[in-house]
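Purpose: get a first structural picture of the assembly so the mutagenesis plan has something to point at.
Setup: two entries, given in the order below. No constraints added.
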Amino acid sequence: MDTVAHRQIDSRVEIARKALRECRLCPRNCGVDRTAGRKGYCRLDDGLRVYREVLYWGEEKELNPSHQVYFAGCNLKCDFCAVGEWNESPEDAPKADLDEIIETIGRRKKEGAKNLNLLGGEPAVNVCGIIELLGRLDDTTAVVWNSNMYYNTIVDELMAGLMDICLADFKCGNADCARRLLDSADYVEVVKENIVRATRHCDVIVRCLALPGHIDCCAAPILEWLAEEAPKVKVSLRGNYVPPAEAKEAPLGYLSPAEYKRAERLAQKMKLTLIQ
Amino acid sequence: MRKKRYKRKCGDFEVRVLADGRVIILAPDERLLQVAGSLDPDNELLPPHKESKKNAGK
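Result (C-alpha cells, whole complex):
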C-alpha cells in the first residue's frame, strides 16, 4: 500500500508521544504524564478510544457522505454537548484497534465515503494515536479534522500536511459566554489563532453554531471577525442547536427561525462565503 | 414519577418528539440513522433508504 511515510509520520508520532509525558497539547496545560496512565482535564491516558463510526449524510453538503470516526475525550465541557457522556467517561469506549479501523475506512470508501472525518470528543487531545492511524492510510483518503480548535500550537504543527479540510467549530464569540458555556475563558482567542494557522496549510470550513439567545453576543462577533481576519474561509452557519435536558448555563430552547435568519443576514451582509 | 432527570450513559440514545411534530435523534448511531432514513426517505441529510430506492419504479 502506498502510505504517507514521506510525511514524517514516525517523527511526528515520537514528538506527540513525548508531549504526552507532560501533556500540554491544549491550553489546559495539565502537565500530567498520560503515558503513565495519569489523566488531566480530558480524562484521557495515552490510549486512543473510538466509540462510534458511521457513514453520515448530515455534514456540510460538500463533505457528504462522510465517514465519521468518534474519539472519546474532550478538553471543553460544553454545557450542551450531545455526546457528553463519552467525554465524562472516555474509558468506557474500547481501545482502538488500528488494523480494524483501517479495514473499516476501506469498507466505508467502497460504500461511498468522500472523506475520513475525525471528531469526538476532540481529536486534538487524541492527536498521537490519530497520527499513527493516518500513517497507515493510503494517500487517496481525504482527511477532515473536525475540531473544537482549542489546542496549543504543537497540535497544528503535528497535523499540518496530514489534514485536507479543517472543519473548525466556533461556538462562542466572547470570553464570558465561553467561560459559562464551554468552561474556557480563553477559548475565543485560542480558536481565532488556530483558525488562522489552519488556513496556512489546508482548506478551512468554519462551522458557527448559532446558539439561541446568543446571536448578538456570539454569532455576530464571530462572523465579524471572520469577515475581517479570515474572509476566504467557507462558513457553515448551523441552526441545529439541540438543548440539553438540563443545563447550568446553556439555552434550554431551540433556535428560532427568526434568530437563524438574522445571523444569516449578518453573514450575507459581510459577504462571507456561506455553505450548507 | 422520577424526581431527577435521567442522565444519559454511554451507549444510550435519546429520541425527542417536539411540540411542532419534529422528531430529533441525539447523536444517532448507524442503525438509528437508517431508521430515520426509512421514515423520511426524501431527506438528503439521511442515508438513502434501500427499500424505497428498490421500490421507486414499482
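Helices of chain B lie at 30-39, 50-54.
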